[in-house]
Structure to design on (232 residues):
C-alpha cells in the first residue's frame, strides 16, 4: 500500500502543445503498480490553461482548489472546488484558470494512455 | 460532458457486512457512460468504519476531509486530507474515522467491480 501526501509528490511541467503554465503531479500510476487507471493532479497558474484538444480516452475529474473554466460545446463553463466532471472519449475540452490563484484539479485516465 | 457538484449527488448507505455509519456518493460510474473506472466519494461518520476486507481489485484513494486511519499490515496508520493511497488488489484494508467530524475520501475502482 502506498500512502503519500500530495505536497510531497514532485511537480513536473506539462510540456504539451497548447498548454500554458501547467504543472502535474503523478499521484498514482503504473510506476506504483496501478494496472487500470492513473491519478494525476494538475495545477494551472494564473493566466494558464491546458490544451484545447480531444483524444480517444475519457477523463474523470475532481476540482480541488481555485476557480476555473472548462470548454464545453464552444462555451467556457465555470467550475469550482467540489465539482466532478466526466469527459467522454473524443469530446473536445480545455481547462483555464479563471482567477489570480492557483487552479488545481485531479484528472484520471486509463493507464494505457498514461505516458509517465 | 457531465459537470456536477458533489453536494448535489445523493448519498446512499453503504450496506456491506462490516461497514458502520458509512455513506457513499456515486460521482462517476457506468451510469454516466464511464467505461473503465468509477469514482465514489465515501463519508464515514464519527465512530464509523468500512469493512476490514480484501478483494481482487485495486483502490486509488484521495483523502478529502477529516481525519482517519487505514489498516495496513496489521496497524492503523493515520491519514489526512491531501493524502493519496494506492491499495493493490488482494491487500487487506479498512478505513476508520479517527475524529468527531466527518471523514471523507474519494475511492476509485475498475468499472467492472462497481455494483451501482
Amino acid at each position: 500500500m502506498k500512502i503519500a501526501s500530495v505536497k510531497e509528490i514532485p511537480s513536473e511541467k506539462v510540456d504539451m502543445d497548447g498548454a500554458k503554465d501547467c504543472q502535474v503531479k503523478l499521484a498514482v500510476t503504473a510506476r506504483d503498480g496501478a494496472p487500470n487507471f492513473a491519478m494525476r493532479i494538475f495545477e494551472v497558474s494564473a493566466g494558464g490553461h491546458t490544451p484545447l484538444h480531444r483524444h480517444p480516452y475519457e477523463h474523470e475529474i475532481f476540482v480541488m482548489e481555485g476557480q476555473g473554466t472548462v470548454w464545453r460545446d464552444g462555451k467556457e463553463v465555470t467550475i469550482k472546488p467540489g465539482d466532478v466532471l466526466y469527459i467522454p472519449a473524443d469530446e473536445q475540452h480545455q481547462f483555464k484558470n479563471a482567477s489570480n490563484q492557483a487552479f488545481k484539479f485531479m484528472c484520471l485516465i486509463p493507464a494505457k494512455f498514461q505516458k509517465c
